[in-house]
Amino acid sequence: MEVLPTLRRSLIVALALLLTACPRTSRTPSGGTTGEDVPTGDPFPKKPAIEVRKDASADAALAQARQTAQATPDKKQAAEAYLSVRKAYPATTAGQDALYQAGVLFFESKDYVNARKSFNELLFENPLYTQAEDAKRKLALSAMEVGAYRDAYQTLSSLAERAEGAEKEQLLRDAARAAEGAGLYGQSLTMAVEEAGQAKTQAERDAAVARVEALVEGRADFVDIARVADGLSPSNPAWPVLTFKLARVYYHLREWNRLEETLNRFLAEAPGSPFAPQARELLARATRRVEAKPRTVGVLLPMTGRYQPIGEAVLRGIQLGLEGSDIELVVKDTQGDVNKTGQAMEQLAFDDGAIAVLGPVLADDSKRAALVAEELQVPLLTMTRQDGVTDLGAYVFRNMLTNAAQANAVADYAINVKGYKKFALLYPNIPYGVELANEFWDQVVDQGGVVRGAERYSHDQTTFTQEAKKLVGRYYLEDRGDYVEGVRDLQGENLDAFRRRKALEKVKSGVEPIIDFEAIFMPDDWRRVSLVAPALAVEDIVTNACDPRDLERIRKTTGKKELKTVTLFGANQWSSPKGRSGLPELIERGGKFVTCSVYVDGFFVDSQRPATRNFVRKYRESYKQETGKDPGLLEAIGYDSGRMLRQLVEKKEGAPRTRAQMRESLANLKDFDGATGRTSFNDKREAVKQLFLLSIDNKGVTEINVDKEREKAASATGGSGS
């Protein structure tokens, strides 16, 4: 079975790049390093580095050292007797014999550092020494004991190539242990599999298979497993372990054809394997991936934990949208955990047979669900604001109010309906504010407008004097020619300190605001908006342009016949609950300073749109007594999303029977009349709809009939629409 090409296609490039970028080094006997990942070859010279000679005095000294060593119970002390001969007669056969004997004694006394030193020195000088094979083996075992696993593996694997029988088997076992210690799991796996195939007893076979299993579970990488498994005979006791691991790899790589092929062969060759029950379940699970129940819809929402209220709100909307249908709703609790979200998505696909899935709402959950949905090719209609979520695959759709949609709606209304061209931005330094400000700026420029000024403030700020002054050019007064000229005039007057201070204050207050913009976009929460708007009025920015009586009062107060008025625009966080007066709290707190403003939202509970009114009525009948509240955007989005799938599932002709058909049906959905607007999906599978433009006056919030105003604007400009 050719398993390696498939895995290489997915993994080998990444692994090669990783290994190239982070080369591991291995020690050589001479103390140097090599960039080779796997040591190869014999580390010792092929010829003696020193020409030794036989010497009678050295032989006599060696004999004396042997007697001393035999009489000394401490093997380390006995080794020192041999080393004294080595030191006195280095270039003699007796000197090399003494070095070998010292190494043996150090090894037997478990002084592996000195044993390694002695054997290394001996073998480097004379790799043809009569006891070289034994010295190399003890050298390798010493290296392993001190943690020099790569050196040990290099030597042991070299010895095993030339050995036979039981000696070869032991050397292979030791080499495998050294390779594992060095992190050379591919080599260790190769030897463990070979050992399993050559084992003579059941105990040996079980031990080798256990090592193979330990290596494939989190140590050897996928490519090594595929390499070792490629061409391996099913008669090898390790074959079931490797083959079932490969099947699990294919499952995670979503290589469905390879998975089924591997599992079918596994069950044919090893039906009695301990892994066989898992293999059958995995095969059944893989088969079920394409089996969808046309009337089963999955839901992924946080039904417990800190985000439970969000999940409950969306689910109420979904259930209301499916009320009276025979669609089976399978709800999975994500708990706001990305791992649980991924698992739940797989369960909906494999175990529950959902033809499509609604949710999640949270950003990270949605990304994980989208990735799994694309892998398994399950249509996912998510309700998140997460940027780029539909870019993750053709099976991922989104039905939710986004920052881009809000910015586009406000810019379109301000420029193409109201005729404004010059804007200012005032926004909080948080992701919501920054993203909306950037999106709005881009939309203004794209539609031919300009941004004259932009100021941001801290998210926890409560006073906004500086920002208001900066917008109208009253903050950096030294840059204002009229202010500098006024100060210069004071310098020629003979005034005491008090009068000079008063005169300077008069000059400052006399500096006229530079209001070179027609509107200000303020993407912030309604609480902060109610604080910012009065600060603008202090700097003579008149925002309540729609109130003739207040405008007349301002003219009389300031003595100015021509007033420069500015319209405030906002986003969905301007929506506020009703206060004690029955008016939205934004109006209660902001008063006249927020009247005449316009903001956008994805849902308006008091809308006169028939589909919205129908949803609000049904929701109040079903849930108002339970929750004590009217529905909001989350309930409305859940309701519309559920009804979209219901409309497709309940089609009299051409209802989708497979997930691929459901994906096509969703992609072609046009002009769905929902509580959040008439919805279609664009080529990026993003919901496109007319949002709610809302106007504020002292009586409350009313929906703007944008189409009607657009017609009036077009009529006033001779049909140009601008």
TrEMBL record:
Region (Disordered), start-end ranges: 25-48
Pfam families tied to this protein: Peripla_BP_6 (PF13458)
Signal peptide limits: 1-26
Gene3D superfamilies: 3.40.50.2300, Tetratricopeptide repeat domain
Domain Leucine-binding protein: residue ranges: 296-471, 590-700
Keyword set, alphabetical order: Signal
Keyword Cell wall biogenesis/degradation: no
Ranges in coiled-coil conformation: none
Database matches in InterPro entries: BCAA_transport (IPR051010), Leu-bd (IPR028081), Peripla_BP_I (IPR028082), TPR-like_helical_dom_sf (IPR011990)
UniProt KW Chloroplast keyword: no
The family this protein is said to belong to: Belongs to the leucine-binding protein family.
Name of this chain's protein: Amino acid/amide ABC transporter substrate-binding protein, HAAT family
Organism: Myxococcus fulvus
